[in-house]
Amino acid sequence: MRSSDGGGPCGACKFLRRKCIRGCVFAPYFDSEQGMAHFAAVHKVFGASNASKLLLTIPPNKRLETVVTLCYEALSRVRDPVYGCVAHIFSLQQQAVRLQAELAYVQARISTLQHHLPIPSQAEASSSVCTTMDPSLHLCHHVCVLDQQLDNSM
Ligand SMILES: [Zn+2]
Prior knowledge:
It contains 7 helices and no strands. By secondary structure, the chain is mostly helical. Bound molecules: zinc ion.
């Protein structure tokens, strides 16, 4: 993000086809290229005047974060008019629920198995081949192997 000190209008003023005045509230955050596309989304969703009023109520040291989140929300809303960025929040919440359930399952299995089998030594553990990049699958795989060992030993 660059200010329009170079002389040209900032991305917001360029989009609005107006003169970029000295001290323009948008200038530090919307450059004349990518900033213009971002501002187009902000204007479409929130309106330039509302965005300007909002920024003026925010202390200058918090405005960058404000602009980043405004752009994120606006771009998400343009992409998904129904859910906007809430679609992403829902998806992350469901992912967190799934991972918590998986973690609880794995912890329960580990705790059960620890009562039946000795903990493998570091050398044995590191000699097993990791075939997947997903650490949660990796952990499940080890639990399944331990399950089989337990079944065989009983
Ligand atoms: Zn401007």
